[in-house]
Amino acid sequence: MREITYREAIREALREEMLRDERVFLMGEDIGVYGGCFKVTEGLMDEFGEDRVRDTPISEAGFTGLGVGAAMTGMRPVVEIMFGDFITIAMDQIVNQAAKIHYMSGGKVKVPLTVRTTLGAGRSSAAQHSQSLHAWFCHVPGLKVAIPSTPYDAKGLLKTAIRDDNPVVIFEDKMMYGLQGPVSEEEYLIPFGEAEVRREGGDLTIVATSSMVHTALAAAKTLSEQGVEAEVIDPRTLIPLDVGALVKSAMKTGRVILVDEGYQQYGVTGEIASVIYEGAFDYLDAPIRRIGAMNVPIPFSVPLEMATIPSAEEIVKAALGLLH
Amino acid sequence: MEIDGARMKEMYRQMVTIRRFEETVWDFYTRAMMPGLAHLYIGEEAVAVGACAAIRPDDLITSTHRGHGHCIAKGGDLGRMMAEILGKKTGYCQGKGGSTHIADLDLGILGAFGIVGAGIAPATGAALSAKMRRTDRVVLCFFGDGAANQGSFHESLNLAGLWKLPVVYVCENNLYGMTVAQSRAMPISDIAERASSYAMPGVVVDGQDVMAVYEAVREAVERARRGEGSTLIECKTYRFGGHHVGDPGTAYRTQDEIEYWKRKRDPTALFRRNLLDQGVMSEEEARVIEGEVEKVIEKAIEFAKESPFPALEEVSEHVFADKVGREK
Prior knowledge:
The structure holds two protein chains of two kinds.
Chain A: E1 3-5, H1 6-20, E2 24-28, H2 44-48, E3 53-55, H3 60-72, E4 76-81, H4 91-104, E5 114-119, H5 134-138, E6 144-146, H6 151-163, E7 168-173, E8 180-182, E9 196-199, E10 204-208, H7 212-225, E11 230-234, E12 237-239, H8 243-253, E13 256-263, H9 268-280, E14 289-293, H10 302-308, H11 312-323
Parallel strand pairs in A: 2-3, 2-4, 4-5, 5-7, 6-7, 10-11, 10-13, 13-14
Antiparallel strand pairs in A: 1-8, 6-12, 9-11
Chain B: H1 5-30, H2 45-52, E1 60-63, H3 68-73, H4 78-85, E2 109-112, H5 120-132, E3 139-144, H6 151-163, E4 167-173, E5 176-177, E6 180-181, E7 202-206, H7 210-225, E8 231-236, H8 255-264, H9 267-278, H10 283-306
Parallel strand pairs in B: 1-2, 1-3, 3-4, 4-8, 7-8
Antiparallel strand pairs in B: 5-6
């Protein structure tokens, strides 16, 4: 299978969906002429024109709200929020409007809005440009949340998101835009609510999201050298969450580590730990270990920043701790 | 769209309907027969009726927490509205939305938005959608003086002015954002002045004169339909009641002021007198209309009262739209 980058995979998804359905259009800051801060949308304005690839003023609440209204009236907008940290500005439109309009209207009005945004620290971008805030959206009934960890998943999940008649927030790890991976040339979609086992193993389960999947796989390699076989499982979507797959793995191994780049306090690992406890309690041989980003605003200084992000070493240490 | 005598009488009927509907809702609330809160449109009837008279059935409106008037003016069925307010299954939103979230796409009512100012951006997006789909449809966006200070107002008008979107912004300036007078919330008197910041015309209208509202909106709608972009229309109006039923509205407004508007600036009474004076409507015709409105409201009440609540299982329906678009 050919290999392309996470960035190219996302661009392909956007392009294919825009070719397939003229109702799909893009709005965001710097996405048009400049091709996007992370160059994801490069070439799309040339191909599809200014009408369908719209550079917006810096007004997240405004253009996200426009996305809501356009979605309510027959279009399928894809709004880009450049840094996940900026999504705070658009919270009312996403949480109070997009998420709730279908329910409040008794099922009459649909909001097929896709919000693409980023997460992930490690670029020395400091506290307001490095956060992973996906947990917030998982807390809101009416929103779906996707979190791809590979180019293959980024393309398949984004295509599904765009075709979904519900508001979807999809989190792209900005640290992975250059990551290469196999992506089928044939068209495919990845359904929501289906986790992927990235590595099989019988000694412990590591549930990881986004770039933490790769961190977990690196840890699994180290552990394997020490005779410990870890199963690495990637939920791919947090809402809907593939609880069955997570519970099944926990039942198999009896020991679980959860790794996510959101702040640890009240992060997605709390929810995932709970559903695993609820489904597999009698099968667990140890308490579930959670590893999130440190509960501090993300510092600028490189050694400090790197210390706040979950590492493979931390995972290995936690795993060995669980086994002894 | 010419307004002939028959049309004017229909507009009068609509104003009376809104007035009597809202008074009925008030009555229900004070007799503890309704849950939640209601924000009544009494005194503002000319704005909704005048504005909606200037658009087509396939044009869209967005409404607010004070939205019963908009829904009625856009053709809403009183029974289904009353049922929704009571939380019944037969309501416009199957009881799921309540007073502040009524929506009916068939009538072009995109929805009422319960967060002040939140509907302005979606309305603008609906206009973008209309333009992108090459229709000549227009969106009327209703909001109050309080909303004109929200970020979403400024961001939306900036986008509408920039992209020349077919949206007509109708600001219902009733001089108070809940309990805070406009003069204590913004340093200018005419919200329409803000239009120039967004490269669109700003028009101040007497919001108690239904024909003046109609004329201003009609002109703006035609502008939008010709592809010339948006307009901000500020209707100077007044709510006779408090912010919501239960708020007498007297803690922050003087009796003199309230009495002045009720006695001298009642839009429904003014229009009635106007039509009589012009010979467009006779006293008898007026009473017939008023009597018919009473009957329609009675039927609506009966319908709503006899309607069932939604079944408990419905609480978890409609969180998500059923079809996850695998097909186009």
